[in-house]
Design brief:
The complex is a heterodimer of chains A (about 160) and B (about 190). With about 160 residues, chain A is mainly alpha-helical. Chain A folds into 2 domains: about 90 residues, Helicase, Ruva Protein, domain 3, CATH 1.10.8; about 30 residues. Helix content of chain A is about 60%, strand content about 0%. Chain A is flat and about 75 Å long. Chain B is of the alpha/beta class. In chain B, helix 3 links the parallel strand 4 and strand 5. The chains are: A mainly alpha (about 160), B alpha/beta (about 190). Chains A and B meet through helix 3 and helix 4 of A and helix 4 of B.
């Protein structure tokens, strides 16, 4: 039994391991090429900063994508703008301000915390609070009910 | 527990989900008519960004909106690749024919040859078109999709932005009143 299992399973397992390794290596080697055809900056820290900022800005044509993910011409133009602003020595805050001055808060992939978005940001906590309150009410109510389980020996005895 | 609170509680059990459902139905129904595509421009009420670009007609010439300072004008973002621009073109030609307001074209990410051909075959409503093949001026104006039309007043401020194709109905509703009030304000300022 054991030798048979070994011979039939092993090649498949090996193949799976190889596939995962190759896939993993591709991912590990290529991050710099994920956005543009070639890395935008020689400096690794600048390149990392560029990629982070590109993932913070929304492509306004394809709304659910960042400019890092999108192939739209506008996204390419905005990436070029981002590279130029970075090369000109602008800070992250200045760059994001430059974008919101032209495109509004919507260009930020993560919505800012302003009065207009309070409901948006607090919704998960409100829902959680609602769920916890409901659970407490249900549990308290159930625990107040007389225990009528006939299989419960504690209550059934006279 | 008596039977009266129990029956009201039983009633709530049906009324509450029904009320929530009704609320959602109303919310979704109202949301159906809402335009989710049009993003409000942060540039409304702000000075129109200045630009200088080569002319579409003649690369040796440059076009700038500085030349229109002190006048009301439209800036229309268009491209020969843009279906919505084809749709609104006749409206622009009609507005130009009326001669109420100059229309400056911003030819966005286009090919010169194709854009020139477009104007030759469909008519040219623009006093001039600036050739923005790199899309840099468009970014300054917060353009994200053609066609877009900006109304700039005599003080050089953007007072309205239309996203998507213009038609005469939109023109009469959104543009004509603003142009009229802009004119009368300017008339009152320097009679």
């Amino acid at each position: 039994m054991k030798p048979f299992m070994r011979t039939s399973m092993h090649p498949r397992l090996a193949c799976l391991v190889a596939c995962l390794l190759i896939g993993g290596m591709t991912l590990a080697v290529n991050p710099a090429y994920a956005i543009d055809e070639a890395p935008a900056f020689q400096d690794q820290a600048m390149q990392a900063r560029y990629e982070r900022l590109a993932r913070e800005l929304r492509c306004l044509v394809c709304r659910s994508e960042t400019i890092a993910d999108s192939n739209a011409p506008l996204a390419a133009d905005l990436r070029r703008q981002l590279r130029e602003l970075m090369a000109a020595g602008q800070s992250d805050a200045q760059i994001l301000q430059y974008m919101t001055d032209r495109y509004g808060d919507y260009v930020l992939y993560k919505p800012p915390l302003v009065p207009r978005t309070w409901l948006l940001w607090s919704a998960p906590f409100l829902l959680l609070l609602g769920g916890v309150a409901t659970a407490i009410v249900v549990i308290v109510r159930k625990s107040r009910l007389p225990d009528t389980d006939p299989s419960d020996p504690g209550l059934g005895a006279p | 527990m008596t039977s009266t609170p129990k029956s009201t509680r039983g009633l709530w059990r049906y009324l509450l989900p029904a009320a929530v459902l009704l609320g959602l139905v109303v919310f979704f129904y109202l949301s159906l008519g809402r335009d989710m595509q049009t993003l409000p421009s942060p540039l409304i009420g702000k000075p129109a960004p200045q630009f200088e670009l080569p002319s579409l007609a003649d690369p040796a010439q440059s076009i700038s909106n500085r030349e229109l300072a002190g006048r009301m004008y439209l800036l229309n973002v268009w491209g020969s690749w843009c279906v919505g621009c084809r749709q609104e073109h006749d409206t622009l030609v009609e507005i130009a024919r009326r001669g109420e307001i100059p229309i400056l074209g911003l030819n966005w990410k286009d090919e010169r040859e194709a854009a020139q051909h477009w104007l030759r075959s469909l008519g040219d409503p623009y006093i001039a078109s600036a050739f923005d093949d790199e899309g840099r001026v468009a970014i300054d104006w917060g353009v994200y999709g053609a066609p877009e039309t900006f109304l700039v007043d005599a003080a050089g401020q953007i007072i309205h932005k239309q996203i998507g194709p213009l038609d005469l109905q939109i023109w009469e509703r959104d543009f004509a009143p603003r142009i009229r009030s802009g004119r009368s304000a300017a008339g009152a300022a320097n009679p």
